[in-house]
């Protein structure tokens, strides 16, 4: 291999190649930057040779110049694409936080395009011919799908929590169970958000047990709110006790306190009737007595990133008038995607097929096996194929205890190392994110749509 490495051409020699000169003339890239990429390309090839990830027949002269410029052209192609790029998710995690969480429905995508492509009535009442409010655009749909008296939308659920606490409990006490002081993604803690809002946290109970009497004893003249936080991203089992909203409602009413529940994930569709988890729906929380509920748009709801606040009109009206409402408001494209997503919930018979998130969660392992069998039929025979049973995750800090039965395609190559393939799939276009299990590439087709099969086949052919 060292003999082959010594045959790699020098950088100054490659700079004299007509292809290097042609790139400088046709691409918007400086000579310094192109030289840097050329050096990195040669270094990558050298490393592949030394690590045994480069197939070569030493009896045939190596056309290094051709190979280097082929690699360089691929790098240039990646450079010309956007930083935020499409990814094929082969991990089986449906709401993968690092990969953008919920995929939008076809109708939501069309609605975003139409809204972005044209002017819109974002803050204009077409019927009255005067200024309108963006809050009105989706409020009726939220009310219809949740049973709330009123609703509004901000840019994410952490913002929703912050607005509720700031506007309705600043300088007042908010009672929260110690077992519900969760930390969400990115090290953001409910207690920290509360501190920033100006509300005074009053912890009650213990990590695993909080009783009705703990809330009752904590109430003072300074108390404004009792807050329930649904622990979406973890589950305590064993010797536990908490107090549900319906039991706290009479206590809140007796002392004229606001009862607020942060649901986090925010399910509008009851997956429990399919035997998947025990995630409470927004409608259930409101029916059980919560005055205000906050939840995410891009988790189980299956829409864009947003924080939705639903509940009693008297409280929502106060939130709409608060100065932070303008700071935290969402743009027209988010509202367009959210409206289209919420419209799908009007028809419960079709929503599970039309929303990618619900469709993926509800796929049976037999349906996933059929997808794999169809895909493998066109796969190159150079791959060693195994199909094994496994489990998928819902993801997004949702239903941590739920495992979705699945089948996973395991691939291995006769000459290439698994890590090399894994890295290559991730770095190419479109990027393919997979897992490594038992030194094999593992692809869970729960999160891969059939329209992505062609691109995935082409990416795998790069390693033939």
Automatic annotation (TrEMBL):
Its EC number is 2.9.1.1. Keywords: Cytoplasm, Protein biosynthesis, Pyridoxal phosphate, Selenium, Transferase. GO terms for biological process: conversion of seryl-tRNAsec to selenocys-tRNAsec; selenocysteine incorporation. It is found in: Cytoplasm. It comes from the Bacteria. It catalyses: L-seryl-tRNA(Sec) + selenophosphate + H(+) = L-selenocysteinyl-tRNA(Sec) + phosphate. GO terms for cellular component: cytoplasm. The modification N6-(pyridoxal phosphate)lysine is found at residue 299. One of its GO terms (molecular function) is L-seryl-tRNA(Sec) selenium transferase activity. Its cofactor is pyridoxal 5'-phosphate. It holds the Pfam family SelA. Pathway: Aminoacyl-tRNA biosynthesis; selenocysteinyl-tRNA(Sec) biosynthesis; selenocysteinyl-tRNA(Sec) from L-seryl-tRNA(Sec) (bacterial route): step 1/1. PANTHER family: L-SERYL-TRNA(SEC) SELENIUM TRANSFERASE (PTHR32328). HAMAP family: SelA (MF_00423). Converts seryl-tRNA(Sec) to selenocysteinyl-tRNA(Sec) required for selenoprotein biosynthesis. Belongs to the SelA family. This is L-seryl-tRNA(Sec) selenium transferase. It comes from Halalkalibacter nanhaiisediminis. The gene is selA.
